[in-house]
Predict the structure.
Amino acid sequence: MRRPESPSPPRPADLIDRSTDVRFPAGVIEGFYGRPWSQEERLQLFDWMAAWGLNTYFYAPKDDLHHRALWRAPYPPEEEAQLRALIGACRERGIDFVYGIGPGLDIDYGSGAELQRLQARLEQLMRAGCEHFALLFDDIPASPSGAGIARFGSLAAAQSHVANALCRWLRQQRPQARFLFCPTPYCGRMAAAQLGGAGYLETIGGALDDRIDIFWTGPDIISRDIPVAHVRDVRAVLRRKPVIWDNLQANDYDGNRFFCGPCSGRPPELLREINGLLSNPNVEFPLNYVPLRTLSWFVNGDPRDPRAAYLAAMAEWRASFATVHGDADLEDVILFGDCFYLPHEEGAEAEALVRSAARLVREGGSPEAARVFRRRAARLRAFCAGLSDLRDRPLFHALNRPAWALREEIDLLGRVEGGPERITSDFHLPGTYRGGIVARLQALLVPQPDGTFLPADADPLTPAVHGVTGSTPRHD
Ligand code: GDL
């Protein structure tokens, strides 16, 4: 993979907490659902992190079978060797490697044999050079009748027991080891819904060894903003500063989108209120340049606002968009990036495109509206079409689907320019365009801005058409 040019690396992050001499963990969680990153991608990541002053990599891919489903079984030798290589690569670059295990799907909390199995896994990782660990209980059945829970009185007490015992055992061998814990309710919304039972977080705050760090994703799983006041409230309950597990640019929940917008909605003062900030970003590794670059500026105290940071990071990322014909224009890269900005907002250029498209439709394709729409649409369309000539093939593969989907909509809207009477397109045919089970189910309930859903008017139970066998391929 080609590496985007970056200006001279900043000096390593000076994130040491002088009062405790512990450095502030800032970096990346590989903690999403879907295909884990490849070894090559992880090495690229570590190079970025070392150059940018990010000091912590947290290994917790949901779909590493041994992370959750097979948590009891040791890694086979070839996978252990891969982890050993990653841990070594982190050490060479001054990055802390944290290994996460998630036994919560089926652990028997009261069983000594289960604890020994967790210890055996940690031992395997310690033999491979790992020193820091995390125990994760996110996204598990939160039933109070799970195995062994009754003995402890609550899920929170049962999990605290396992975490404390494992941490105690670990620290006997590695007194300096970091140990982190992900609770079952890990955001404000889950806590309000009393996931894990009433008083879950209070119990955790009181029962968990106070040297164990606790993950928190903010007010929501995907938190647009993480206000200082929110984190102070959480800190009071947890009796320690949380470590932020930041899902702002995670995209595993929507296969049609990715997020290359900046670290934003996190005020600089937040850094004093937390014990670490780790980003769990896009599944497709090459799409994480800007999210992680802007994160590195944020945690290193760069005073740029998020949009300025985004523009600066896009200027660096642009080099990756070189095609066999030459370099990409920065304005085009920004227009495209703005279309895949952040979960709750498009970038400014994309917002302007949407507004011009809405006007085009509203005005039934008036010439003036068409002219304004075309200004951005034509550039964007050409840029999307040109992506297939990218020299950086992993980047192209990561972009192809979302860029294709975007181009389809731009093309269809272009048809409105001909007038409002009857919009047709040979490239947007019933069945192959916006077809399929997901689209039909989506059509049943219409999301409202306030978060509620209303039943749709139309009857989506009838497939739009039968017998159409594929969209017409394009060769541009
Ligand atoms: C989650 C999962 C995480 C996933 C993310 C975004 C946590 C603690 N757990 O709830 O694995 O990638 O949402 O879908 O965030």
Confidence is low (pLDDT under 50) at residues 1-20, 464-476. Residues 31-33, 62, 138-139, 182, 186, 217, 221, 245, 247, 250, 252-253, 280 surround GDL (CB under 6 Å).
